[in-house]
Amino acid sequence: MKKSLLFLFGIAANVMFAQNKFPQDAFIKPLKIPTVFAGTFGELRSNHFHSGLDIKSQHRTGLEVVASASGYVSRIKVSHYGYGKALYITHPNGYTTVYGHLSKYGPAIEAYVKQKQYEAENYEVELFPNPDELVVTQGDLVAYSGNTGGSGGPHLHFEIRDKNERPMNAQLFGIQAPDHKDPILKDLVVYILSDSSHVNQSQKRQELRFTKQPDGTFLAEKIRAYGQIGFALGTIDQQDGANNSNGIYSIETSFNGEKYLEVKMDQFSFAETRYLNRMIDYELYEGDRKRVQKLFIERNNPLSIFTYEKNKGVIDLTQNGNASVYTIKVKDFQGNTSTLVVPITIAKESILTPKEIKTTPYFVEAETYKNFEVGDWEVFIPEGAFYDDYYLDITANTDALHLDEDLIPVHKYLRLAYDVSAFAVQDREKLYIGRVNYRGLLRYEGARLEDDHLTASINALGDFKVGIDTKPPKIQSLDFSDGKWISNLNEINFKIIDEDTGIKSYRATINGKFALMEYEYKKNQLTYSFGDGISVSGANEFKLIVTDNVGNSTTLEATFYRK
Fold this sequence. Notes:
single chain; mainly beta; Glucose Permease (Domain IIA); nine-stranded antiparallel β-sheet
């Protein structure tokens, strides 16, 4: 009886600990509509883990966004990219909620932001109000949903961060969506992890087939293997009412019934998020667009999402002739589970397909700084730029540089420098370094002049070339022409385009006074709202200057009339 009571007390204590750790009644959902996820916490994105929940807004903008809990507005950031218009609310319990891709803020916050933008004479601002300036109560209107910044469609990006600014899975706090679907398994890959290892007499990476069984589990094709091997899995999850390819919550692996690895998406830090490129098979993603996450931990992988590991998740097969089983269990937050079983026969065999060994004059060690001179180019590689040691394929042809292929992940920015001493001084300021895309077109990377060198920082390998941009940006008025009455308009819009290096800055004035314009880069559009009160009754002199990344500029001047 005493043991039973102790057991029950232990269960109750664990439940209470979980509730205390993640309070279930502290936060409410930020939108007043049924919650459907377009993206989940920890989802694998380009170069980062998704740090919040993307909540669908029914394909609309302008839905009311409410404070998930009482607190004060601690940070406001308005930018062209990233979260676009973002709002941060700090709460008495130490957590901070984040609301991103907003179309505009609530009335009091909007007025505060606009005042600061006019004071700075800049659309992009980052503000840190005092705790007593913008106090909110749970459920207060604080913003309207939108599609600003890097958003790919209307939705609300919502986060909960701890006191150390680490993003946490908001589902832990009760912000959830209905989900009765098992995770979807897409790709299974096996890797050779030592010189003597092999799978099916090969030392190359292999993709394995698997089929669904009558009991709902999945069975992979049997493999013959020896030595140290590891697996990777491509998997997504979907919730009720949506077909988005969202991230999973946890993965657990076992070998012959013994737990080997556990990955859980509860929280992470922004400092580690780029290590996603170490966890996935970067080459497979960039080459074939298959995103699989490795279920073993390699060197230079400090990710905290690995909550348990035995032997770094690596399977060591040395008992020849024995039959073994490797099992992968994938779960979403609601506990829906998909199980994949890989039967293995341990067999030491002759190797028919050995691994390929690549050598070049350009060897880079992961923990060592390197500087290569190739033709008129210099390549500066800082310590820790790569996760592994590599032989890089580097060639140069006058103003073109081949810096291997974008199949090797880059963790820290590399620096390129090109000798421009052969160019006339007046031409150097129009030069830039661009990346050659799959269409053969140049995408601007940088145009910094340092003595006789043109430099740029890059975060991926590939082909680069020096370009020259002498064409100024284009400006097109979408609403009026010079000398027109526009009393009926609440706003005026302009299309701005720069074909070579892209838009760097813009500035508008009305009657010589700064006029705040919002830039929506996805539409190449600038918008001015007359609610700012800058214009006067009668004639107004409008001036817009748009500048690209090498200093070319275009000026549009026009007179408009308003009552």
